Amino acid sequence: MTVPGVATVEAVVEAGGAGTGRVMTRVDQRMVELVSNHGELLARHGSQTITAGGKRLRPLLVCIAAAVPVEESEALVRAAVAVELVHAATLVHDDVIDGADLRRGRPTVVASGGRLLALATGDLLFSRAFAELAAGDKIEPIRVLSAAASALASGELMQRDDAWNSHVGQERYLDRCRLKTGVLFRASCELGALAGGAPSDALGRFGEGIGVAFQLLDDILDVTGPAERTGKPRGTDLLDGTVTLPLIEARKRDPELASLDLRSVETADQAAAVCDQIEASGALDFARDHALAVVAGAKAGLPEWLPETQRNALELVADGVVERYS
Amino acid sequence: MTVPGVATVEAVVEAGGAGTGRVMTRVDQRMVELVSNHGELLARHGSQTITAGGKRLRPLLVCIAAAVPVEESEALVRAAVAVELVHAATLVHDDVIDGADLRRGRPTVVASGGRLLALATGDLLFSRAFAELAAGDKIEPIRVLSAAASALASGELMQRDDAWNSHVGQERYLDRCRLKTGVLFRASCELGALAGGAPSDALGRFGEGIGVAFQLLDDILDVTGPAERTGKPRGTDLLDGTVTLPLIEARKRDPELASLDLRSVETADQAAAVCDQIEASGALDFARDHALAVVAGAKAGLPEWLPETQRNALELVADGVVERYS
Question: Structure pTM?
Answer without folding.
Answer: 0.90
